[in-house]
Amino acid sequence: MSVGWDQEVDVLVVGSGAGGMLSALVAAKNHAEVLIVEKEPQWGGTSATSGAGIWIPASDQAAAAGFHDSVEDAFKYVRALSADNVPDENIRAYVENAAKMLRWMGANTEIDYHAFPYPDYHAENPGGSPTGYRTHMPSPLDGRKLGDDVRTLRFASPAASLFGYLNWHFDETYILLFRAKGWWWHLARSLMRYWFDWPFRFTSRKDRRLTLGNALAGGLRLALNEAKVPLWLESPLVELIEEDGRVTGAVIRHRKRDLRVRARKGVVLAAGGFDKNQAMRDEHAPLYPNALYSGGTGGNTGDAIRAGQALGAETMNLQSTWAAPVFYIPGEDRGRLCTIERALPGSLMVNQRGERYLNEAASYHVTGQQMARRQREHGDASPSWFVFDHTYRHNYPVGPVYPLLPDWAQNGMVKTVLKKGRTIAELAEAMGVDAGRLEATMTRYNAHAAKGEDPDFHRGDAAYDRMYGDPRVTPNPCLRPLDKGPFYAMPIYPGDIGTNGGLKTDARARVLDGKGQPVAGLYAIGNSAASAMGESYPGAGVTIGPALTFGYIAANDLTGANAQ
Questions:
Q1: What stretch of H or E contains 93?
Q2: CA-to-CA distance for 327 and 162, rounded, in angstroms?
Q3: 84-115 pLDDT, tens per residue?
């Protein structure tokens, strides 16, 4: 042990989300001694709470599914959507290495991803894919393999679990959503699996059938355990240590002691964005002002970004988030992402004047951005109202409102935000909006919806809109008149699933200083780095996909290995 250091490793990874864990695993497989430190008492980060979709162009899995993609098409598609200040090299590094990363992860972990027919969010743009197969989803994983580590795995978010304790797989979405043949069996099997998992069930409310983000995080942790890579919980980053112009380690608060940890090869910052730091939002991202509405986890307070800034690192696009419309239930610590509900027929969104102002079925990023901009310009969109009728209420879920449960059986806090009226006028009174305007809005909407048309906002025209529509409804799976009372409404807010501006990096994930030069020994990935997507969201999985890919690139770069 060198003088002045309490711990020495080759690579120090700050953060235990998917990108950080994969970076640590790649470094370990490249024969480096690695340590992961995590601020929270649970590991997995926001990745573990997510759907775990990853956007990977030209993958082996897509080719096996019959979709022959082109890296050049993917570059052209992302380049046109991303911000002007994002270098071509960063976008190319992502699209050219994403499939390599996925191939490596499949060969070195038990994680099994498959390509999914999920259209790109702007599929009609040049290079976009209306048929999908760039978004990939993970197969379930048996959490019992993790032993006691499964107890400290961060559980799925309320928006990505059933009843707050059951995991579900993306392939089961349509079976349960549209109550397809066998749906009762799927639900009963999940309930029985959870019920009979005792005594574990009595000491932890978690489902040990890991799916979505839990499957990704769990598979990475399992491989890290096999590689004997330690992960310290409740060990926040205090500051980075720089010597002679190079980052040589960090001060980590571990077990109530500040330890100087030397990182001989480098430090990887993978600690998320500043989702839950209200002061940083106020300063940098005023368009998305409320930290409470973010779907990010509580530990995402910008620690890594500020630590880099303290050494003179440059930042970029701090005003940007992964925008999203969210439901907020009083007492919860985050917003609930609203993805599927807005595309289903028999619903619409209105502002506080009772008027529609957007295509409800657009991607959640576009919808969240439009809501936030509307609020800034007119002050009537936060909250907006998600309005639906009796038929919708008893066919589809709405956030925490489940279709099989009568109104009186809903959670008490849910009932405080769910508004109901026998007529549109009665509903308008409960919402606090002008009854005449709301009735006029719905009359116009219904007349066109009956013909499967939306001349105002073109709902259901785009491939992505129809992704979450009800295929049983024709001619437009996203449109049906709201014509059966009682009628319902829930407040819906402009929120996000995390910030995506951060430390400025190059194509090798190296953090750059104010002169555009790499800060030696310092790398940043995920939401700790400014996204290669700029302020855009090209498709499902462009959050975790780049986090994993740049984690893979960073680990190979700092260990001197070539990406294979």
A1: helix 88-108
A2: 16
A3: 999 999 999 999 999 999 999 999 999 999 99
